[in-house]
């Protein structure tokens, strides 16, 4: 940790988040000269007292150090799009669920001509990410009563109990989660990847360093312009790797003049490379949270679980298939049981449509790096209405489960969406009126071959048309895997680091 900004580095990683830390650590471990520039604070190594309690506490989601993004006036009320602004990035905030998705997700990337991204090629990287992130599998006997009730009930709707969720060949199943939690601590990517490399003389990590834009000379990235402690600096680099996440990597590109003419010209940003796909193809899995009034027995049992010392909000998960999916799964069920809220008679489970058709965008409104971007997910906007239909089917399965003999004695009346949306028509209307996200935005700097006009980076994460510039985070996923995206983000970091190392060794 340092407060001094170097004037140059061989590799500058922009964003010390989930994927960025993987890239930085791998390059530094190989002896290369690496500088990480993180817009938020660097709290130092694991165990440092500077780490805020909410970012460490794995029983619930982190809240402090948020970028403060939301849907603005897109919907009748703002939908928050949380992202952590601190070393560790959104791995500081998340629910610690580690899922991989299905083989088809990654094979479909490879089928787009993206060499190196098939499930078989990524599988060892998932294993390595799992090891580094200290992922462990909950046992069924560790589940709190609310989590266990859904796990036990799953077979009533034909969803088998399975040992874990991360078999890439498996379709439906309900299982205790795999989580990156050790001794109650959320193991973020800074702890898992940066810390072992922090002592290396060739790795520098600078917090409170907001990268404004990439400097480009004759089609080659030469460094970045960065705001540090209120002053503007330039840092020169051989290679710049953007890892600002799905909302911010495209905004850095846009401020650097890389993006669609139509967007840059009105903002007086000189166009360096016309790439129409920058900021487009934004998608996340739409989400519906359902709540029931728990029985007195459930209230007592959950209070007892909390008193016993460990009652995290999330612990189990189901994979299910809607009528739109015939080979794998396209729904998640996520029991959610926040004992800290004090609302002891209300328990929830969410469903999410994992393969959404709708696409939105991220756009800059000004060249000021502190200005919030416009983020419009255009949730549930697909003209066929498939996204809403998948969520409706998910909700119907959950209602069937709630009424099953295993669950019925434990849950009372449905509170949300509630009796006024019991008909399918009313449920559709409810979901359209209450769009929500699953915290997994991807796609705004999508990988694609050079002939794909919407592609932003190639299969080696190189920005099309610009030398010495890469993107390594969830933004490069051309299509979302049917997974929560923390481990896929780690895998993106591992994959891009592998490409960079191969090239460095052959120089
Ligand atoms: C509340 C919440 C709960 C979640 N729960 C889960 C879960 O349980 N399981 C799961 O798998 N996934 C979960 N996710 C999603 C997962 O955490 C993210 O998909 C993943 O962490 C994103 O990784 P990333 O590297 O793309 O971006 P991030 O981890 O967000 O990293 C981006 C980094 O870049 C920095 N940065 C951005 N702009 C700049 C700039 N201009 N200059 C310098 N630095 C910059 C940011 O501050 C940040 O540190 C959750 C996410 C949230 C927000």
TrEMBL record:
Keywords: FAD, Flavoprotein, Oxidoreductase. InterPro entries: FAD/NAD-bd_sf, GMC_OxRdtase, GMC_OxRdtase_N, GMC_OxRtase_C. Its cofactor is FAD. Transmembrane segments: none annotated. Its EC number is 1.1.99.1. FAD binds at residues 211, 439-440. GO terms for molecular function: choline dehydrogenase activity; flavin adenine dinucleotide binding. It comes from the Bacteria. Residues 245-259 form the Glucose-methanol-choline oxidoreductase N-terminal domain. Pfam families: GMC_oxred_C, GMC_oxred_N. Belongs to the GMC oxidoreductase family. This is Choline dehydrogenase. It comes from Microbacterium endophyticum.
């Amino acid at each position: 940790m340092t407060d001094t900004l170097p004037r140059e580095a061989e590799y500058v990683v922009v964003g010390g988040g989930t994927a960025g830390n993987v890239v930085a650590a791998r390059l530094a471990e190989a002896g290369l000269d690496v500088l990480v520039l993180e817009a938020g604070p660097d709290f130092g190594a694991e165990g440092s007292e500077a780490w805020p309690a909410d970012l460490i506490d794995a029983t619930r989601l982190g809240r402090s150090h948020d970028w403060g993004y939301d849907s603005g006036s897109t919907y009748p009320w703002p939908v928050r799009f949380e992202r952590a602004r601190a070393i560790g990035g959104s791995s500081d905030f998340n629910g610690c669920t580690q899922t991989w998705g299905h083989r088809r997700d990654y094979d479909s990337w490879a089928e787009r001509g993206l060499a190196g991204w098939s499930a078989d090629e990524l599988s060892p990287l998932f294993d390595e990410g799992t090891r580094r992130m200290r992922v462990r599998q909950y046992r069924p006997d560790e589940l709190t009563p609310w989590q266990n009730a859904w796990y036990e009930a799953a077979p009533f709707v034909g969803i088998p109990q399975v040992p874990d969720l991360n078999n890439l060949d498996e379709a439906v199943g309900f299982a205790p989660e795999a989580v990156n939690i050790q001794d109650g601590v959320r193991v973020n990517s800074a702890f898992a990847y940066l810390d072992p490399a922090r002592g290396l003389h060739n790795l520098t990590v600078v917090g409170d360093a907001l990268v404004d834009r990439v400097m480009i000379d004759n089609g080659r990235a030469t460094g970045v312009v960065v705001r540090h402690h209120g002053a503007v600096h330039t840092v020169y680099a051989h290679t710049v790797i953007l890892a600002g996440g799905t909302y911010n990597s495209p905004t850095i590109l846009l401020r650097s003049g890389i993006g669609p003419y139509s967007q840059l010209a009105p903002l007086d940003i000189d166009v360096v490379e016309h790439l129409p796909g920058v900021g487009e193809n934004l998608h996340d899995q739409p989400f519906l949270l359902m709540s029931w009034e728990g029985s007195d027995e459930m209230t007592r049992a959950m209070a007892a679980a909390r008193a016993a010392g460990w009652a995290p909000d999330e612990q189990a998960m189901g994979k299910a298939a809607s009528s739109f999916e015939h080979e794998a799964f396209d729904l998640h069920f996520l029991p959610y049981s926040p004992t800290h809220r004090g609302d002891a008679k209300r328990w929830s489970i969410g469903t999410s449509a994992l393969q959404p058709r709708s696409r939105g965008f991220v756009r800059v409104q000004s060249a000021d790096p502190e200005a919030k971007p416009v983020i419009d997910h255009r949730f549930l906007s697909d003209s066929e209405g498939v996204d809403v239909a998948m969520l409706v089917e998910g909700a119907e399965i959950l209602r069937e489960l709630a009424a099953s003999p295993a669950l019925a004695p434990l849950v009372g009346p449905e509170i949300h969406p509630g009796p006024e949306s019991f008909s399918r028509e009313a449920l559709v209307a409810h979901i359209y009126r209450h769009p929500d996200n699953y915290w997994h935005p991807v796609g705004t700097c999508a990988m694609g071959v050079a002939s794909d006009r919407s592609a932003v980076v190639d299969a080696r994460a190189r920005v099309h048309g610009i030398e010495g510039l890469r993107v390594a985070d969830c933004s490069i996923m051309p299509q979302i895997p049917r997974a929560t995206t923390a481990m896929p983000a780690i895998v993106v970091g591992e994959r891009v680091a592998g490409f960079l190392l191969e090239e460095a060794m052959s120089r």
